[in-house]
Amino acid sequence: MIDHEYTPEIVCPYCGHEQSDSWEFSDDGTHECSMCDNEFNYERIVTIQYSTSKKECEQHQLILRSDFKKFIYDTEPVFDPKYHRVPLPEEQWRYYKCMVCSVCDKEVQALLTKDEYELI
């Protein structure tokens, strides 16, 4: 059986010869196979697909996320010789809050002072 449906190039349904440069042919018509000289019909099948994404706004209108308001984050964890995590001393902690733009949903982690963190 000759695979001649939905192929990337025009394929002769009689002998299976692949016609090179099929993109140069019209959208549909008839063609004579250069290998077996049989004439056959062909049609071009075009598939169109789309991808979308949210538009990022020029100036973010950031608001505090309701589900994840604040957190403490240490970027340089210290490890003891047994590979157990040892927290940083509190004076080295960094404080963040999660913000989200009300227009484009872009999320940002904003650095806070300890005083700002405690006010949230």
Give the gist of this structure.
This protein has 1 helix and 10 strands, in the order E-E-E-E-E-E-E-E-E-E-H. The protein is mainly beta.
Please, could you describe this protein's structure?
It is a single chain. The protein is mainly beta and 120 residues long. Helix content is 5%, strand content 32%. Strands 5, 6, 9 and 10 form a four-stranded antiparallel sheet that branches. A hairpin with a 6-residue loop joins β3 and β4.
**Total number of beta strands:** 10
**SSE ordering:** EEEEEEEEEEH
Distance between the termini: 71 Å
Question: How much is the radius of gyration in Å?
Answer: 31 Å
Strand percentage, roughly?
25-35%
Low-confidence stretches: none
Largest sheet: 4 strands, antiparallel
Structural class: mainly beta
Overall helicity: under 10%
Mean pLDDT: 78
Question: How would you sum up the global shape?
Answer: elongated
Number of helices: 1
Total domains, how many?
A: 2
Summarize this structure as a short list of keywords or feature phrases.
elongated; four-stranded antiparallel sheet; mainly beta
Please give the structural blueprint.
Layout: E1 10-11, E2 18-19, E3 28-32, E4 39-43, E5 62-64, E6 70-73, E7 78-79, E8 85-86, E9 94-101, E10 107-112, H1 114-119
